[in-house]
Amino acid sequence: MLVKSDTGPATDAIQRVLVVDDSRLQRHILISSLKKWGVEVIEAESGEQAMEICRTAPPDVVLSDWMMPGMSGLEFCRAFRALPNEGYVYFILLTSKSEKNDIAKGLDAGADDFLIKPVNSHELRARISAGARILSMQRELSEKNRVISETVDKLRKAHDAIDKDLIQARKIQESLVPELTRDFGASRVSLLLKPCGHIGGDLVGMFSPGGARIGFYCIDVSGHGITSAMMTAKLGGYLSSTYFDQNVAMEKRHESFYALRPPAEVARILNDRVTADAGVEEYFTMIYGTADLRSGHVDMVQAGHPHPLILRRDGSAAFLGDGGVPIGLLPDLDYDQFETVLAPGDRLLFYSDGFTECNLACGGMLDSDGFQKLVQSCDAGQTGQEFLDDLFWQLRQIMAPGQGMEDDVSATLFEYWGP
């Protein structure tokens, strides 16, 4: 440990100094001064001997004469810098040379500083102190880099664990939509769900209690990521296509069969449940419809979701609905219901704002009119899942280049072909 004193370097960054000089007298002069400052000193009479010492026990500072028989100080400096030392070593060349070209050669070889012979004790102390400051900063920087490296490694491991969990979470979320296409008699419901990350906040689904009645929906939970995905998992239970006793869109009648509740009533029930939970800050938009497969009559409720688009068999199209308030924002809300009638060959499309708010390569967003044109640009002969996949492909073609999806994209398509 370095002993601090008024005459020596005020630092503990330097503990071992290697003095290299072929002159015994010169080594004695340097060693005497260094030992007064409490520094451990090692000596070598040649560059070759110094290299052997440095290979086994590198010092903190090297004081080396330039002119020596055999390996010169310049050659020793180059060879020393080539060693795989873990920490930095401060190298001072002792020389009678003062020409700029000579100094440049020394710096190129790896020297940090120079002392002109004969060496003055006060100047030696100042050079050692300067080296101590540099070594102290270098070691502090190395320690910080070590801490940063360890932290990055921990973060990488944590990220890998989270990534693994998210992959599993995506599988669980995909299980909420067990089938993407289902035929109901001659008619069909098809679903599209494309999260912008591992998991998303959109949910689509369909169910039928039988009796030529079906329900289908498209939901978009506020925000992105884990909390939104957890909300979709909860909603998936509320609108289960498998467990009708848990599905709030159904009610049991006469203890023997299930019937579909009116869409407006379903929106009210969901709003009451979400707002009653004080720990839930998320809200969601929804479009939910029920269809009578015998008549083509469709009842719908719109809760802040984009307007559903009806696609007539003759090629015409129109938006439906008046907007409505998202579910979970305000308690004790009643929702309005609206209706339409489909003729055989007509289609009804629910979709999320991941379509209409997509950033385009030409600037701006797609918006509703652009979405209608995008839909009508798809091949009219495509149906079901093929139509939705083509619609999503068309969207990717007009997105801003080099930009990934910023929002989840989802859609529900109901194709009516009569009883």
From TrEMBL:
Record-listed 4-aspartylphosphate modification sites: 65
Record-linked PROSITE patterns: RESPONSE_REGULATORY (PS50110)
Family annotation (Pfam families): Response_reg, SpoIIE
An example Gene Ontology biological process: phosphorelay signal transduction system
Entry-linked InterPro entries: Bact_Sigma-Reg, CheY-like_superfamily, PPM-type-like_dom_sf, PPM-type_phosphatase-like_dom, Sig_transdc_resp-reg_receiver
GO MF term set: phosphatase activity
Swiss-Prot/TrEMBL keywords: Hydrolase, Phosphoprotein
Keyword Iron-sulfur: no
Domain of life: Bacteria
Coiled-coil region list: none
All residue ranges annotated as the Response regulatory domain in the record: 16-132
Protein name: Fused response regulator/phosphatase
Organism: Antarcticimicrobium sediminis
